[in-house]
Amino acid sequence: MRNLNFVKMHGAGNDFVLIDNREEARENGTEIINKNEIIRLCDRRKGIGADGILILVPSEQGAFGVKFFNSDGSPGSLCGNGARCIINYAQLKGVFSKGALEFKFGDKLYTGSIESDGNPRFNIPRPAKLKKNFRIKAGGALLKANYCDNGSPHVVIEIGDVPVDPQKSPVGYQEIEHFPVHRLGSEIRHHIDFAPDGVNVNFVKVISENEVEIRTFERGVEGETLACGTGAAATAVVLFALGKTGTKLKLLTRSGDYLTVDLEIINNKLENIGLTGPAEIAFHGTVGLD
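The structure corresponding to this sequence follows.
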């Protein structure tokens, strides 16, 4: 039996187990946790409970590196809320106080900072790929969809474009509360068009030019999360490209918290995406592993 210290954190309800392995990794260079242990720790009944695991490791670039794993034990792609939790943690640990923090997430360098209201901001480069207004067969209908890859792959669908009963009427959903996120999200996440890696799926309702409601089905969690940072960022990019929202967008997540996305446009080109919102420590703990 070995003991593992951890910090339980969440960003707008999207929760993580954070393990600071910087010192131990320097000493022995071994992996601190394996796939089965990741699954166990993320289990909400038999473990700590989390959407994923964040592990801080030494890095020759930036203040440190981050390894991210989904709750099913698979390696994760970029995680916006996880990154914001890390920025908050780094400030509390004295890694930085003012200005920008540079760190490595996966194999790329990113920056972040703490806003004047105390919320962490994570900067995401412009998307590697953006595709608008294509059709995908799901839920018994041919649905209008959009795709954005900003470090994580995302499909964005407006709920009004999804028929409530495609066999009887083309009338779409009006309220996001009653939308079948799990059923439709799971189908699209495993759709052949996105094989073999799959895709995250965001369902949104535009409230105004400055606000939307959002619910997200995340691969790796294989279910709906209370918030998704890269999903919020992808949604802001897609809706701006469609001319439906502006450069600053508030997104009401399933948790009831808001995420805010700022799009920096220079010479009519999207250059940077800023993601802000609440992120905090829930508790510290120690868990025994076999």
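The mean pLDDT is 95.
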